[in-house]
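Protocol step 4 of 6: structure prediction from sequence.
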Amino acid sequence: MKAALGIVLVFLAFRSFQFVMAKYPYISATEIAEIKTFNPPPGFILAISADDAPWLDAYAQNQRLGAPGLLEDPHTYQEWLSFWQGQNQRQFIAHYPRPLYFYQRSWHLPNLDVGKCLMPLTQNFSQVNFECVEKIQE
């Protein structure tokens, strides 16, 4: 009985070790540093993917935050689907204060409408150029 329990414990310890060694971080230290040091004039950071919202919430400073279905998000799932497909993007972003920054680590907007009007600030942060957005929609 003791031998069987010992074998089970060794097996569980081995499997736990394998599990821990196979894991990788969801976000790199470089990406965390990018969020921590992102310090433009206060505005609104909109994560394009809900996967990125916890990292922004944890590390962004002095910024309002939104992401699909999280934080200060005023949109429905259907509105997000339309936005991701390039539809009604001007109306979609009109609900957010300015300046509006996009965080696009997990997923990037296609180069349609608003995607054409993003000014890159860092690897994953961009600012919406609203003058450009107005010209595209005319």
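Step 5 (inspection) to follow. The radius of gyration is 21 Å.
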